Amino acid sequence: GIRLAPKEKLEIPVLFLPAEMKIYKAVVVIHVMRENGENWPYKLTSESNTDLNRNVTVAENGETHGIVWVYPINGTPEAPQQKSVVIRCQARQRLEQRVELLLIGVVTPGARALPDAGNPAGVGTEESANAPEATDGSPATLEFLYELQYQSEEIRSQLESWVGLQLVEKEWDTESRIVTLIFNVVFAPSKPMRSEATVVVQCTAGGLWKFPLVFIAREPEVDDVINIEAVGLNKESIVGFKLTSQTR
């Protein structure tokens, strides 16, 4: 019953308050009809576009009574951001460190069935069909996707060749519903620096977790000490040494 003037805009607020860390799905359906109740003279035929057939309502005489727009909404709950994990290493050294990240509120595999909202216009549901099914309470059926995100392309270009991240183990606590992901982090900086990145973890059953990482590279050790002995006043003293280039 909302009336719109020609070229007027309509804002539809959507509020998302997830109760659990799982995937939520809904659709926003907008049905537009003429204010005077008359139909549009356009008639659907067997040669009409199939997408058009799904997005209009037809009157008894075959004319178009209304136009339908359907906007699918996929809700992904995001956990509060955790405290930063600081990884320190001396420049031109290599550090391997195990980092444990706690995923709080993971939905148990046995509770994966999610009711879909009404679908009057035939919106596809292939995404939920491709999700792995679980029948027991073990974490083996839960899949986690992770990536290391950087604050800027400049930080990415600096850290990508220095940082490695690999998931080596996951532990499941059924009582507390906490999954512990254990990562092996490799940090091999070539010069002193301080940068930040974020490990973003997403569960296929739903939920998003973000963990900030702070990488700190300290000053490297002194390579060598060069001693130049004076041979006399107003006379040059020369000492030679070799440098090895790390690039071509």
Automatic annotation (TrEMBL):
Domain named CFAP47-like immunoglobulin-like: residues: 78-217
UniProt-annotated stretches for the region Disordered: 115-136
UniProt record, GO biological process: sperm axoneme assembly
One Pfam family recorded for the sequence: Ig_CFAP47
A GO term from the CC aspect: cilium
Transmembrane intervals: none
InterPro entries xrefs: Ig_CFAP47
Full protein name: CFA47 protein
Native source organism of the sequence: Helopsaltes ochotensis (Middendorff's grasshopper-warbler)
